[in-house]
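Propose amino acids for all 356 sites.
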């Protein structure tokens, strides 16, 4: 009962001190509050103004956020009267709580430290020696359990590292296998590309050569036609009587020209068929490449799925071992506590029997 009364007295003193401290920290801003004369009585307001009229920090041109200059007021005993007057009004306390967000960090730290000190002191005063000893025993037991847990964690970490190293070795082997397969596919693709390029180049060179030959033949025929035409004109001018003979000759030359054009069209058709066959072969090679790429993608998906299933199985096995460890550990702790409890009961019975 005496302890409770002492705690309540201490709380009252600290609460009153905190309230006055907050008012002192925010005093410069509180005195600039325009509604302050409505809260205080005229006599109290006059006392406050007379006490603070010599401090320039309360002038109208002063910075509203300047709280550090008011630290000098704590050395003036008259300011105690001002703090006592303001402390009697709840409205002023509410105003101070709102203004605390603008106070310097050092003042906030002081208020926080005093509140923490009050809580610790109250808790310590309410704690009995028996409770304090029990708390220390719990801390020691917790420290021992934590140390044992750290040792177990180290062992599990070593086991985990070993499993990770084995897993990384398997991954490296799989990566090497994939790299070899990719290299082989790249070689095959390069060989196919080279073959296709060579065939296309050969076909193009043959087509260019044929076109050049036909072009030369056309130029030769055109030149011959021009010569014949010139000769025809000359013959027509020199001898009109030979017009029918020359016309028949011209008809013959034109028929030869038509035959040559037909031959040209036939050869061009054959070249076109050759080009279409080469294009079809190129398309077949492209489809074969797409099939190989599709098979590679399927193998990659199967490998990723297998890898995820293996990791999931590994994690499930690890969780199972961890749960077994926790259950065994809990069983040991419970058995030990039960043995200690039985031993304590036996000891107590022995002591009672001795006393009797």
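Proposal:
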């Amino acid at each position: 009962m005496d302890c409770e009364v002492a705690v309540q007295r201490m709380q009252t003193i600290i609460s009153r001190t905190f309230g006055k401290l907050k008012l002192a920290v925010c005093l410069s801003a509180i005195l600039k509050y325009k509604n302050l004369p409505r809260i205080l009585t005229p006599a109290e307001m006059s006392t406050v103004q007379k006490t603070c009229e010599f401090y320039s920090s309360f002038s109208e041109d002063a910075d509203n956020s300047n709280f550090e200059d008011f630290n000098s007021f704590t050395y003036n005993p008259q300011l105690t009267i001002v703090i006592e007057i303001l402390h009697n009004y709840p409205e002023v306390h509410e105003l101070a709580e709102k203004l605390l967000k603008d106070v310097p960090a050092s003042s906030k730290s002081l208020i926080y430290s005093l509140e923490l000190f009050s809580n610790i002191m109250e808790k310590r005063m309410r704690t009995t020696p028996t409770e304090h000893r029990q708390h220390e025993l719990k801390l020691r037991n917790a420290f021992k359990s934590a140390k044992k847990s750290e040792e177990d964690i180290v062992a599990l970490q070593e086991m985990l590292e070993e499993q990770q190293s084995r897993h990384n070795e398997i991954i490296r082997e799989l990566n090497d296998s994939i790299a070899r397969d990719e290299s082989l596919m790249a070689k095959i693709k390069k060989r196919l590309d080279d073959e296709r390029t060579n065939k296309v180049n050969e076909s193009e060179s043959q087509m260019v050569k044929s076109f050049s030959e036909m072009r030369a033949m056309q130029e030769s025929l055109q030149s011959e036609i021009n010569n014949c035409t010139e000769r025809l004109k000359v013959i027509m001018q020199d001898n009109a009587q030979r017009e029918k003979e020359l016309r028949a000759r011209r008809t013959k030359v034109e028929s030869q020209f038509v035959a040559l054009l037909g031959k040209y069209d036939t050869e061009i058709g054959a070249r076109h068929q050759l080009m279409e066959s080469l294009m079809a072969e190129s398309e077949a090679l492209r489809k074969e490449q797409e099939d190989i790429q599709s098979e590679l993608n399927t193998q990659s998906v199967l490998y990723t799925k297998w890898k995820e299933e293996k990791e999931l199985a590994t994690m499930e096995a690890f969780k199972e071992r961890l749960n077994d460890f926790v259950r065994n550990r809990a069983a040991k702790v419970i058995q030990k506590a039960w043995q200690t409890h039985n031993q304590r009961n036996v000891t107590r019975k022995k002591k009672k029997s001795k006393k009797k």
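The radius of gyration is 54 Å. The first helix runs from residue 2 to 25.
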